[in-house]
Amino acid sequence: MIVPDLCDRTYMVEILRTRGNADAVTEAITALTTEHRPAEEASGPDGVKIQILHSFLPSTRPYHRATRRVEGTGRTTITVPRRRKFRGKPNYFYDVLLVQCRRDVMVAVPYYALAEEFFVRVDRALAGKRVVYEKIDITNLVMRLGQTGAVEVQSGESSHELQIGVTRCQLAYSDPQGRTRDLQRVYMSGSRIGNTDVYRYLVEPVLNPSGSPLMVTPTLLGFALFMDGIKKTSAVTDRHGNFQLWVGPGVRRIERLFSLLDSVESIKGILSTTSNVPILQSRAMRTAEGENA
Amino acid sequence: MARAALRYSPIHPAYLMPGGAPPKPPAVLMSLAFFFCQSPYKMLGRIKPELNPTELEGVYFTQGLASIVCVNYSPERSQELRGLMDSPILEYWPLSDSCTTPTDVIVKDNDVLIATVPQLSFDADAPSELAVYVEQILACLVVLQESYAIYNPGELRTLERVLAFTKRLICKYVEVSARPLAMENRQRCNQIAATLVELSASLSYAVTQGASGCSPILENRSPFPQFSLLGIGGSVRAITKFTRYLESAFAARNASEVIAKEYSCRDTDVPVRISLYTSGQEYKLRPDDTADEEFDRGGSFQQVNDCPLIAYFSLRHGFKESKLSLTAAAESLTDEVSPQWTMMTLSHEIMHNRVRSIFQKLFGSSWEHDRDSALTEQHYLEYKEWYESRGKAKKFNLDCVLRNVVLNFCCARDRATDVRRSRRSSDEQEIPGLEVLSEIYCRQRLHAEEIFVHFHDYYFSYAAQQHMYIMSLWASWIKVAAPYARPMEYLVRTLVTVACGCGLDPEAAFEGAAEKIENALTALEQKAKVQSPLFVTLQHLLGENKEAVYTLFKPAYYLIDHVRRFFASREIAKRIDRIEADPFAQGSTAVEEYSASVFVYGEDDPASFVSPIRYSLASFLRSISGESPIADRNWLTAWNTMVISSQEIQL
Asked: Out of B501, B570, B586, whose CB is closest to A219?
């Protein structure tokens, strides 16, 4: 079982799709990391194989605020992030998770600032490999989810009832008439905010734009996959393809992200791709992270 | 044999790494492939996943019609990329010892596209005295049509409109010249001829600037020495798109039509005495009842078939607007990121055009309305009646009220600037005669127009962002002469603009605006490190000369409050903001929220649209805040123009 050192915190994730060779993509990314752990395999949506790779990114620059002591393998206690010499210099070692399923590859790292630096390097390393980034049209998704903030999705051959529900939402307000800044942003979070009247009230201008003098735009959306009413995985995303999720020990949640994306993809007009590195346009995610830190 | 003259143009690396140095130019040049893409920004995004690391470093962008240049690509790879980029023409230069010969140049063009250029027809008979202009105009239109069909198809519609406008002018000329030979008829004929001259001159500029640098490159030299090889076709396309963007937003509601058909039938009363003016709820930018703005009420008044402004660069004129054309300072070609040369200044000039049409409608002073005086007898009598009624006895049509408000401002400002400080006699407190009122109007009209323009720019372009607006104004004004000569005038303009729509009485509005100006100037000095002795003068005016400033502030506040109340338009503002389509907007018009980055390329999504206004504003803010991602001003200038030139804007 893969247990990332920093599994108790949220990771920044980008999801790549290649029209070329996915193995070559994975290889190019792993070439940027060190201390590769043995790959693990899991079963993804419709039984498709998922490969999970755990390695480390050495960095002389600290991205963490404080170190912690956690229990490592063999009941030993280690300090994370780990610190040791790499190429003659003391480095911190940060987890890099790489999950490949068909032609999709997820890259996940802890800390926003680390992602800002690493994802750009990944993009350059993948030049010519025909890689694009997946992103979700969150305005469209909010509209599809409607006032209840939930929608049933296709479950393939499975007999389970699958549902996507909203767990977080950040709305930006603009006032084209008054040009005021009286209200700029509202952030909601909860286990299933679609069940609340507050959510219904707040997304009404998104669903029915002509009924409101304010223009309301979702800029962040947290959504979860519920199987028979039980939450299986969740992620937060912005308009540009930045994802943030809690990985947890065993990284099951990141595996299940593929199921979540598969479910989202089954709703038409939601998933698209971009050649731009999402982290370079992550103002909403960064602001939210700062405000919620 | 004469030696070929030196020709060169800057090219800029397209794919930069955050925090990294730009790629080094290749040590050996083996080939150059020129792609004439209409949307280079989008094409850079489209080809990026296909390029390997070496290829990425060989991609450059330019300010010419050959908008993307790939260095050291093979002919086959270039042809492959041409397909991806939808480039109508590919020009490939094989180089030997970094030199090429014209005979080696390979041009691959889209024969089908070039063969299907529709022909412009002109069937009006021009009088002989106009023939020279008509010929020039037609020649320009033909050249531009061929060029636009390949490099800027969105502008073909402009040519049709220019042609239709030319025909209308000639018909008008024929009609007026057939009338008895009188001074006024001759004057109108001359005005029409002058308009044709202006049109012809503007089109000539459009040809020399917009069509040079086309393929074959070596045969189409640009008149700008520093862009002599590839020209500035891309930059001209950018300022044209910027202009069309605002024009298309304003076309949603034609101000002249609203005044003529809606305001002329709507009664209203507004405060008459400026000395007693207190503003109030109905003047607030956001009235509590959330009703439609006055300007948006009534039917649809879409503008159709007007003559779009022809945009080009000029070193002599700098930023300037006239009836049919718009010039951007030539300095903007290389230093657009400086406050004084930012593209945002264009928006101010375009607003002048809008305001001109408002004044023409209110005062009937276009060449279509002939009279000697600046004001008519009717205008005068209506104003007198309105002023003497004190707004109580009778309601007046809104168009008349707006004209009276302007006249009221002119009179009040004239009095305020009168050097005689003695109290006015009872005679002087009455409305002056027509002749004197006309003189006052002529003296003060420009001030009134400027207040209209400032409101439009502030409300529509700057989305009423006060701090940003003040910083932007004064960062650019310290570079021009007029604010040094007349600081009070410029200060009052700024004060009333940021005060408008607050709904407070003049004194409170003045205090609030003065504080905002002081804050913004401090931010300019301390954060943006913009220093000027003018700022000291402003602080002095707001301190020791406060009373004198307030005297000028009050009539201007009265006027701008009415401009706000009757010319603010949610309908137009929404079209300018376009935040739902703009990938960088983040759901907000706040410039600080705008997430554009020089490391991000255009999206293929047809719904994605970068608002030229918001983009320029964000770039401007980064520039004055010292937060530009890279230090190379030429690169940033070229990048900004490339982004804007790539947007699809239909008039």
From this structure: B586
In the DSSP assignment, the letter for residue A158 is -
Tokens 């070229």, residue? B638
Consecutive H or E run containing B163: helix B156-177
Q: Is the dihedral of CA A32, A37, A41, A45 positive or negative?
A: negative
Please, what is the average pLDDT of chain B?
Answer: 89
Predicted pLDDT at B438: 92
> Measuring CA to CA, how many Å separate B365 from each of A137, B264, B374, B385?
51, 17, 7, 22
From A132, A174, A282, residue closest to B579, measured CB to CB: A174
Strand order in the sheet with B310-314: B310-314, B325-329, B320-321
Residue B419 pLDDT level (bands cut at 50, 70, 90):
low
Mode of pairing for the β-strands spanning B325-329 and B310-314: parallel
A207-229 average pLDDT score: 90
d(CA B66, CA B216): 10
Residue with tokens 């798109």: B241
- For the stretch B584-608, pLDDT in tens is 988 888 888 888 999 999 998 888 8
The tokens for A143 are: 């509209």
pLDDT value at B1 more than 50: no
Task: Say how far apart CA A271 and CA B374 lie, in whole Å.
Answer: 61
Do the strands B59-61 and A271-274 form a parallel or antiparallel pair, or are they unpaired?
unpaired
Contact between chains at A218 and B589 (C-beta distance less than 8 A): no
**How much is the average pLDDT of A207-216?**
88
Q: Torsions phi, psi of B397, nearest 5? A: -65, 150
Pairing of strands B89-94, B12-13: unpaired
* Partner B contacted by A140 (CB < 8 A): no
pLDDT tens for A94-107 read 999 999 999 999 99
The one-letter amino acid at A187: Y
Neighbouring residues of A143: CB distance < 8 A, sequence distance ≥ 6: A206, A207
Which helix (H) or strand (E) element contains residue A113? helix A112-125
The answer to whether the bond into B308 is cis (omega within 30° of 0) is: no
Contact A120 B593 (CB under 8 A): no
Angle at the Cα of B334 (from B333 to B335), degrees rounded to 5?
Answer: 105
Token pair 């008054």 in the structure block, residue? A178
Q: Identify all chain B residues contacting A14, using CB atoms and an 8 Å cutoff.
A: none
Give the integer Cα–Cα distance in Å for B566 and B288. 16
Residue B454 and residue A279: Cα distance in Å, rounded? Answer: 38
Instruction: State the DSSP code for A228.
Output: T
Coil, helix or strand at residue B627:
coil
Closest to A193 measured CA to CA, from A165, A217, A218: A165
Contacts for B641 with CB less than 8 Å, ≥ 6 apart: B63, B234, B235, B238, B239, B336, B343
Inter-chain residue contact B583 with A281, CB threshold 8 Å? yes
- Which residues in B lie closer than 8 A to residue A217 (C-beta atoms)? 579-580, 585-588
